[in-house]
């Protein structure tokens, strides 16, 4: 019998961060500019937490770490789809907290590095991605506005495609790289352009990535 609640999230994920394209953190290197600052979004297409259905909801989070993620002292603020019921809100916050995941899995790892959890906001959240077009948006009206677009060849302006494969990754096994522009006026203030974006398929449960 599992020690964790049975849950699953499947859908589209997008990460926008202040690192250079590709993000050295994915290579066990230090962040490009010293700090790690990010906005992430999930569009849940299939999902549940126990008997609480989660399909159709969107979630966004902003993060700040004063150094590399693994060095800790991070901050996080969650933005939960206002359409979620009280049970759905609690389920999503529990998943994000890492409490219902093994310690070596994605949400649990990131939660262990956060020491300041700002008050979650229950607001309109929009998350859209198109991996083929290398575009995505994360939007909380009046607070968070982020988008991804293709990286462009600096000589002729053509689309530059790059894909990162991480066979042992704990967030995704592969992701398409793009260019991020994002700003946030919430508890964590962000304002970046021409930085790293990653578009990927989210498929996660209590034991981490669900393959297949």
Spell out the key features of this protein:
two-stranded antiparallel ribbon, 14-stranded mixed β-sheet, 8% helix, 16 strands, mainly beta, 212 residues
Decide which structural class fits the backbone. mainly beta
Radius of gyration (Å): 16 Å
- How would you describe the shape? globular
On the 0 to 100 scale, the average pLDDT is 96
Major β-sheet profile: 14 strands, mixed
- Stretches where pLDDT is under 50 for at least 5 consecutive residues are none
Q: Approximately how much beta-strand content do the residues carry? A: over 45%
Number of helices: 2
What's the N-to-C terminus distance? 23 Å
Short description:
With 212 residues, the chain is mostly beta strands. The chain has helices at 86-97, 106-111; strands spanning 7-17, 36-49, 52-53, 58-65, 74-81, 114-117, 121-123, 126-130, 135-140, 144-149, 151-152, 159-160, 163-165, 174-185, 189-205, 208-209. The model has no long low-confidence stretch (mean pLDDT 96).
Structure description:
The chain has 212 residues and is mostly beta strands. It starts with 6 loop residues before the first strand and ends with a strand. 8% of the residues lie in helices and 50% in strands. The mean pLDDT is 96.
Topology:
Elements: E1 7-17, E2 36-49, E3 52-53, E4 58-65, E5 74-81, H1 86-97, H2 106-111, E6 114-117, E7 121-123, E8 126-130, E9 135-140, E10 144-149, E11 151-152, E12 159-160, E13 163-165, E14 174-185, E15 189-205, E16 208-209
């Amino acid at each position: 019998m599992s020690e964790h609640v049975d849950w699953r999230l499947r859908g589209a994920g997008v990460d926008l961060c202040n690192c250079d394209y590709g993000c050295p953190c994915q290579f066990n290197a230090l962040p490009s500019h010293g700090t790690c600052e990010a906005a992430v979004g999930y569009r849940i297409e299939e999902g549940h937490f126990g008997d609480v259905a989660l399909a159709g909801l969107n979630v966004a989070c902003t993060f700040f770490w004063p150094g590399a993620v693994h060095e800790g002292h991070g901050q996080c603020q969650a933005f939960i789809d206002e359409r979620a019921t009280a049970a759905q809100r609690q389920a999503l916050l529990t998943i994000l907290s890492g409490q219902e995941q093994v310690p070596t899995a994605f949400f649990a790892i990131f939660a262990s590095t956060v020491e300041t959890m700002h008050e979650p906001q229950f607001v309109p959240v929009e998350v859209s991605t198109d991996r083929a077009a290398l575009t995505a948006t994360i939007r909380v009206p009046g607070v968070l506005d982020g988008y991804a677009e293709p990286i462009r060849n600096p000589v002729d302006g053509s689309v530059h495609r790059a894909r990162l494969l991480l066979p042992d990754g704990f967030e995704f096994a592969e992701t398409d790289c793009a260019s991020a522009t994002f700003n946030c006026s919430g508890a964590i203030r962000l304002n970046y352009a021409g930085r790293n974006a990653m578009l990927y398929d989210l498929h996660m449960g209590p034991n981490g990535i669900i393959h297949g």
